[in-house]
Write a structure and sequence with these properties.
Blueprint lengths: L1 H17 L7 H17 L6 H4 L1 H18 L6 H7 L4 E12 L5 E11 L4 E15 L9 E6 L1 E2 L12 H7 L2 E9 L3 E5 L5 H19 L4 H10 L7 H10 L9 H19 L3 H6 L2 H19 L4 H18 L6 H15 L7 H23 L5 H28 L1 E3 L1 H27 L4 H28 L4 E3 L4 H13 L4 H20 L8 E5 L8 E4 L5 E4 L11 H12 L7 E3 L5 H4 L2 H7 L5 E4 L9 H7 L4 E4 L2 E7 L3 E7 L13 E6 L2 E5 L5 H10 L7 E3 L10 H8 L3 E4 L12 H9 L4 E3 H4 L2 E5 L5 E6 L2 E2 L1
Parallel strand pairs: 3-6, 12-13, 13-14, 14-15, 19-20, 20-21, 21-22
Antiparallel strand pairs: 1-2, 1-4, 2-3, 4-7, 5-6, 8-9, 10-11, 10-23, 11-12, 16-17, 17-18, 18-19, 23-24, 24-25
């Protein structure tokens, strides 16, 4: 067990190190890997057993680094061809994955066979493209050949700490280019899928989805599809949040629970027929070989249920246990889990970073490690009491084991989940899932019977939703969002996992965990005692965090995209604030009423302690919904009038807000301006001021040095940025902008003029999130790269 655990830990360490290793290092690692992998074969007899593990561990670390680089780098130059054309092209290929989304669009993966434009055509070999079809999507099926016109681009992360790594998520699926199709009328279906086992399973999934949609109303239909098909795309955000807060979301990810029920049914049915055959009973003992015979059937269920990560892990564990049983071999469940995970990661290395696999492995490991010891302490002869006790212990073990993962990945803590699962697991696992799976089996042969079974499943799901919503209303403090730094998560892991592991390992784990937490604590991302300015990369918008040396934090604007499918506050700002160790905000400052500055503030105001909300007296009415949140959270407002308002003035630190002296017609010219200085360094944050606003600011003057300047209005050429630079003489400038934004900001003329003056220009679209720090002598700059700062 120690050897298997060491191998898994070494390989996972290599994969994690691969996130920081640059691709050129692959050239040096590739020749070393076979050499190190071969050493144990030649030195097997001469090395002592414990020393023998060192060489495979080093080899697996290097293998993990190499694997990460290989799987995150496009294997074909055709990807670059598709992305660099810079124009709409026609692509033709076979559909390999289809998913309906809750907002009505369709997401599909297309294995492109050829592409062509007006004057050229190229045959491609298996390049996968992810397409988003927004309006009027056609009915797509796996295996269809289609053609459409689309402009492709490489996916890109925002570059904000704590964000979901979308690029790596797609790379795991061998996708390195994406595109959007505005209307489904532009999609032409050239041929239907050929008949095969895969097309039969795809058709079976389609019939099941149609049966669920016709038998049940939303949102119960979407939850049922997630329960039986692993299709969570149509589950609306409000249901996802309800399930996450109540701690029962894991029941709607097809996992080992589902596989256990299916394998139990199969075993009972096959054993019934097996015992009717005298020949089979005499030749082959059923308890030894029947599980092996079930492996192909469970493989079909794996494909039917969507082949999710947790289901793959459960399938590998079942197959391994069945083969060991057939060979009269016994192994510990934890060793079986380690072997299954290692095998899965060797085949699919990037699966390590999938939350579904992390939660699945953590939950099973917690149950395997803790339950045998706990059960011996809480044994009871009454069967009903024993069943209820086992359910409680399993739920508690899984909740404690997965709590640190949930906190890190989803920024949630749900103590209510222990109570909610006591109700939800029997309803879902004992009634809803068997009914739903009965409906799946009946769909191809008896649609009417399938509809009855699906309806019964819907009744159970509705009852479950009513119960968990009532629990949340009764105990609202039992579940909450929690944005935390890395060292907080380590402390939570020490507390939760300390209850699970045996006593002989507990002290060692606590010591190691505390050392890791201490190292993370004494090396914060934001230097203590400095004046820090963080420019978050939030796309074509703006959000800044001003952190004063006394530890107070001021969030200036919240970014925001003009669409409603992506919440900048929830997806970018809140995780980033947590990673930076910001637990409360002294004030949230809204410079002016434009969506790209205020839309991300809604989530922050709802989920962070905020002492005050500052805005300008000339901005007029606050955006819809913002005033309501301020009232609900009892956050006082502070309105700044014309001119400078000095908030902190002493020898080392100065902090002030400037309000425009007039009500301008252009909302941009109503922007508040923020100034902060320490020693000889000062920063001026100019909002979206236009020409008139900048003129008024220069007329009012800035009482102090400006060595760091934010270009007004994202670097627009109409905002007199060069006049500001000439008057204030900063040492460096920066701009907040979205990558490839349609406005072309910062404007090339401004970029060129800044370069001619010899000033460094930092851009969030190029460098990601920026952190400027000063102790009063010179600004130090760090920018985000691969979820870290350099």
């Amino acid at each position: 067990m120690k050897g298997g655990g060491l191998c898994l830990a070494a390989y996972c360490s290599g994969l994690l190190l691969g996130t920081w290793v640059e691709p050129p290092a692959l050239i040096y690692l590739l020749p070393l890997t076979p050499l190190l992998l071969g050493w144990p074969l030649f030195l097997w007899r001469s090395l002592r057993p414990h020393a023998l593990l060192v060489l495979p561990a080093i080899s697996l670390i290097l293998l993990g680094i190499v694997q990460y680089q290989l799987f995150t780098t496009p294997s074909s130059a055709d990807y670059l061809l598709l992305e660099r054309t810079g124009q709409e092209i026609v692509v033709e290929g076979v559909v390999t994955h289809v998913e309906m989304r809750h907002d009505g669009r369709v997401r599909c993966d297309l294995t492109v066979s050829r592409c062509f434009a007006e004057r050229w055509m190229k045959e491609l070999g298996g390049v996968v493209v992810r397409l988003h079809i927004w309006d009027n999507p056609p009915l797509l099926r796996v295996g269809q050949t289609l053609r459409t016109t689309v402009k492709l681009r490489s996916p890109r992360n925002f570059g904000t700490p704590g964000e979901f790594d979308y690029v790596r998520y797609l790379a795991r699926r061998d996708i390195f280019v994406t595109g959007s199709v505005a209307n489904g009328d532009a999609v032409a279906i050239l041929s239907e899928p050929p008949k095969s086992v895969l097309s039969f399973i795809a058709r079976w999934r389609e019939l099941t989805a149609a049966c669920v949609d016709s038998a049940l109303p939303q949102p119960v239909a979407a939850l049922t599809r997630a329960l039986v098909l692993g299709d969570r795309g149509q589950v609306a955000p409000q249901e996802q949040k309800l399930l996450a807060r109540s701690g029962v979301a894991h029941l709607f990810a097809v996992s080992g629970l589902h596989l256990g029920l299916v394998s139990g049914w199969l075993y009972v049915v096959l054993l019934f027929f097996w015992r009717r055959s005298t020949y089979l009973l005499q030749m082959v003992p059923p308890r030894r070989y029947l599980p092996v015979a079930m492996i192909p059937l469970l493989g079909i269920y794996l494909m039917l249920a969507g082949s999710g990560m947790s289901l793959q892990r459960a399938f590998l564990m079942f197959a391994g246990a069945a083969l060991l049983l057939a060979m009269y071999r016994r192994t510990a469940p934890l060793q079986l889990l380690i072997t299954a995970v290692l095998l899965l990661l060797l085949i699919d290395p990037l699966a390590l970073f999938e939350p579904s696999l992390q939660l699945s492995v953590a939950g099973v490991a917690g149950i395997v490690v803790a339950i045998p010891r706990w059960r011996s302490r809480f044994s009871c002869r009454l069967k009903l009491v024993r069943l209820m006790t086992d359910l409680l212990l399993v739920t508690l073990a899984a909740t404690l084991a997965t709590a640190p993962v949930v906190l890190w990945q989803f920024h949630q803590l749900s103590f209510l989940g222990i109570v909610a699962n006591l109700v939800a697991v029997p309803l879902i696992g004992g009634v809803a899932i068997p009914l739903a799976l009965s409906g799946v089996l009946a769909v191809p042969v008896a649609p009417a019977l399938a509809a009855v079974a699906v309806t019964g499943c819907g009744v159970m799901l509705t009852a479950m939703l009513v119960i968990v919503e009532a629990l949340l209303n009764i105990f609202p403090a039992g579940a909450f969002s929690c944005q935390v730094a890395a060292w907080h998560v380590v402390l939570v892991a020490i507390f939760c996992w300390g209850w699970l592991v045996p006593a002989r390992l507990r002290i060692k784990g606590i010591v190691v965990g505390l050392l890791i937490a201490a190292v993370l604590y004494v090396n914060p991302i934001l230097p203590d005692g400095d004046l820090n300015l963080t420019a978050f990369s939030v796309g074509q918008g703006e959000s800044l965090l001003l952190s004063l040396p006394d530890g107070t934090h001021y969030l200036i604007d919240g970014g925001g995209l003009y669409g409603d499918t992506f919440d900048v506050g929830e997806r970018l700002l809140a995780p980033a604030l947590g990673r930076l160790g910001v637990q409360k905000l002294s004030a949230v400052i809204l410079t002016h009423n434009h969506p790209d500055h205020y839309k991300g503030l809604f989530y922050v105001l709802e989920n962070f302690p905020v002492e005050e909300f500052w805005h300008s007296g000339v901005t007029g009415k606050l955006p819809d919904g913002l005033a309501e949140i301020l009232r609900e959270k009892n956050i006082p407002q502070r309105i700044f009038g014309p001119g400078w308002a000095w908030l902190t003035v002493h020898q080392d630190l100065r902090f002030a807000i400037w309000g425009p002296p007039f009500i301008a017609e252009d909302e941009n010219d109503r922007s508040l301006v923020v100034y902060a200085a320490i020693g000889a360094d000062g920063v001026l944050l100019t909002g979206d001021l236009g020409s008139s606003g900048v003129a008024a600011l220069m007329q009012g003057g800035v009482d102090g040095p400006v060595t760091l300047l934010k270009l007004p209005h994202h670097g627009s050429r109409y905002s007199r940025s060069l006049d500001l630079i000439s008057v204030l003489a900063p040492q460096m400038v920066f701009a907040s902008a979205g990558f490839g934004n349609r406005y072309g900001l910062p404007h090339p003329e401004i970029v060129r003029a800044v370069a001619e003056r010899g000033l460094p220009l930092y851009q969030t679209d190029q460098h990601g999130t920026l952190i400027f720090s000063s102790q009063g002598r010179k600004w130090q700059v760090k920018y985000s790269k691969k979820q870290a700062f350099y």
